[in-house]
């Protein structure tokens, strides 16, 4: 049955409804919660929250410990921690387009959510890939809403300074490409097998 009650319990619920109202409500809430947030959805939510938390915590620590424009060499001339405020997109492109980036980020977030729930493939690493994309986009969106700029600090000297949100977006996008590629490859193999058996 829906909530796993046996016949005896169902008879008692019918005969004494007041006694079991709270129990029924509690079990319904648990089942709804597990249906919404169980399994892959829970993995997606956890990845998003961890990505945002890690990104915002790293930026908070940088802002507390460093002056704007300060650069600390970790490996001299190879890897530095450099605190800047980036008015553009990832890696500094399209500077001073704050409203555009806020709208674009919201649209991307909505697009990723719609893609996930309409996708027939919710297994494997897909929730992690989309969680990294969502969390990274949300992390930079928080900065734009607070400062109209993005806090960047990871500096490899030969590449524009970036942050953990940018890293999450790139990793999520790369992982998504691999997932879709392997999925398409598997579908093609299944079609070949089906044609061969047919």
In whole angstroms, the N-to-C terminal distance is 40 Å
Structural class: mainly alpha
Largest sheet: 3 strands, antiparallel
- Outline: elongated
Beta-strand content: 5-15%
The total number of structural domains is 1
Strand order of the largest sheet: 1-2-3
Quaternary structure classification: single chain
- Rg over CA atoms, rounded to whole Å, is 24 Å
Secondary structure topology:
Elements: H1 7-15, H2 17-37, H3 40-65, E1 71-75, E2 79-86, H4 98-118, H5 126-147, E3 150-155, H6 164-197
Antiparallel strand pairs: 1-2, 2-3
Describe the overall structure:
It catalyses: Release of signal peptides from bacterial membrane prolipoproteins. Hydrolyzes -Xaa-Yaa-Zaa-|-(S,diacylglyceryl)Cys-, in which Xaa is hydrophobic (preferably Leu), and Yaa (Ala or Ser) and Zaa (Gly or Ala) have small, neutral side chains. The chain crosses the membrane at residues 32-53, 99-117, 124-142, 162-182. The active site is at 152, 166. Belongs to the peptidase A8 family. It is found in: Cell membrane. By secondary structure, this protein is mainly alpha-helical. The chain has one domain (38-197). Helices cover 67% and strands 10% of the residues. It contains six helices and three strands; from the N terminus they run αααββααβα. Strands 1-2-3 form a three-stranded antiparallel β-sheet. A hairpin with a 3-residue loop joins strand 1 and strand 2 (79-86). Helix 3 runs parallel beside helix 5. The longest helix has 34 residues, at 164-197. The chain is elongated and about 70 Å long. The two termini are 40 Å apart. The model is unreliable at 1-6 (pLDDT under 50).
């Amino acid at each position: 049955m829906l909530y796993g009650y046996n016949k005896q319990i169902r008879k008692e619920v019918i005969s004494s409804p007041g006694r079991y109202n709270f129990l029924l409500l509690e079990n319904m809430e648990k089942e709804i919660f597990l249906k919404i947030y169980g399994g892959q959805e829970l993995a997606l939510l956890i990845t998003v929250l961890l990505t945002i938390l890690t990104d915002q915590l790293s930026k908070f620590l940088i802002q507390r410990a460093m002056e704007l424009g300060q650069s600390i060499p970790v490996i001299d001339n190879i890897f530095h921690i450099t605190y800047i405020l980036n008015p553009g997109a990832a890696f500094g492109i399209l500077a001073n387009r704050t409203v555009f980036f806020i709208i674009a980020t919201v649209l991307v977030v909505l697009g990723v959510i719609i893609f996930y729930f309409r996708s027939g493939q919710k297994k494997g690493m897909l929730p992690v890939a989309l969680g990294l994309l969502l969390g990274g986009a949300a992390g930079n969106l928080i900065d734009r809403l607070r400062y109209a700029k993005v806090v960047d600090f990871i500096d490899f000297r030969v590449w524009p300074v970036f942050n953990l949100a940018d890293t999450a977006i790139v990793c999520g996008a790369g992982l998504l490409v691999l997932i879709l590629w392997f999925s398409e490859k598997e579908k093609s193999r299944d079609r070949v097998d089906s044609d061969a058996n047919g």
